[in-house]
């Protein structure tokens, strides 16, 4: 069972916590994690690219020259793909790239990502994040104190507007609630900063 220190916003240890083996201590499955990362990135694609085929390009109704006797190759339209200003062969059209993944696979991938972070000691457990006002500097100082100065994902037990807005404009820092966690953000972060109350919610959902 993984054991981690619980620290305060100044980086001082205040207690310890045992994380659930079934969530933070499983053998990571690289294949399902890769599948979920591909799924996340595919779902972010807008799919709005578009080009015109030869039937959609304006003009080209008249045959450029007669079929035979000119010495040139026969042509039927100036909007064929080989012509300048012609249509595009197999032109891309707006479409959705999103696809769904089996629920069991999603759960296994998330637990694998959390276990990967736990095994590499890239998880920091905070006792709480308390802000009296919207203050980015407080979050910057907190991250510096706990050693999360690069890319960090702060996991909150519930929506906290002050924390979210205070962390919004810090480069490389993202916030998420337990129900918003995804494999891509977890693996992309150098440090996973989890509030203690959020740990119990994660274990309740995924254990």
Written overview of the protein:
There is one protein chain. With 207 residues, the protein is an alpha/beta fold. It contains 7 helices and 6 strands; from the N terminus they run ββαααβαβαβαβα. The chain has helices spanning 21-24, 30-44, 103-119, 136-145, 161-168, 183-188, 196-206; strands at 3-7, 13-18, 123-126, 152-156, 173-177, 191-195. It has a 6-stranded mixed beta sheet with strand order 2-1-3-6-4-5. A hairpin with a 5-residue loop joins β1 (3-7) and β2 (13-18). α2 (30-44) packs across α3 and α4 packs across α5. The radius of gyration is 27 Å and the shape is elongated. It starts with a strand and ends with a helix. The mean pLDDT is 92.
Write a concise keyword list for the protein shown above.
elongated, 6-stranded mixed sheet, 207 residues, 34% helix, 7 helices, alpha/beta
List the helices and strands and how they pair.
Blueprint: E1 3-7, E2 13-18, H1 21-24, H2 30-44, H3 103-119, E3 123-126, H4 136-145, E4 152-156, H5 161-168, E5 173-177, H6 183-188, E6 191-195, H7 196-206
Helix pairs in contact: 2-3, 4-5
How would you summarize what this structure contains?
The protein has 207 residues and is α/β, with parallel strands linked by helices.
**Fraction in helix:** 25-40%
Read across the widest sheet, the strand sequence of neighbours is 2-1-3-6-4-5
Number of helices: 7
Q: Which parts are unreliable, with pLDDT below 50 for 5 consecutive residues or more?
A: none
Q: Strand-residue fraction?
A: 5-15%
Radius of gyration: 27 Å
Shape field: elongated
Beta strand count:
6
Our measurement of the CA-to-CA distance between the termini, rounded to an integer number of angstroms, reads 13 Å
């Amino acid at each position: 069972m993984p054991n981690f220190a619980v620290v305060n916003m100044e980086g001082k240890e205040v207690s310890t916590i045992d994380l659930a083996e079934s969530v933070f201590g499983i053998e990571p499955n690289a294949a399902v994690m890769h599948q979920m990362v591909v799924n996340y990135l595919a779902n972010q694609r807008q799919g709005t690219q578009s080009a015109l085929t030869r039937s959609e390009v304006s003009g080209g109704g008249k045959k450029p020259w007669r079929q035979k006797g000119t010495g040139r190759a026969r042509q039927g339209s100036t909007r064929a793909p080989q012509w300048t200003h012609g249509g595009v062969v197999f032109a891309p059209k707006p479409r959705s790239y999103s696809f769904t993944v089996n629920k069991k696979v999603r759960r296994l991938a998330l637990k694998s990502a959390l276990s990967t972070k736990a095994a590499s000691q890239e998880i920091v457990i905070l006792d709480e994040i308390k802000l009296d006002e919207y203050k980015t500097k407080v979050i910057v100082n907190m991250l510096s104190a706990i050693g999360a100065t690069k890319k960090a994902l702060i996991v909150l037990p519930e929506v906290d507007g002050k924390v979210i807005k205070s962390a919004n404009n810090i480069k490389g820092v993202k916030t998420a609630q337990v129900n918003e966690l995804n494999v891509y953000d977890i693996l992309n972060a150098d440090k996973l900063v989890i509030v203690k109350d959020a740990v119990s919610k994660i274990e309740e959902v995924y254990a």
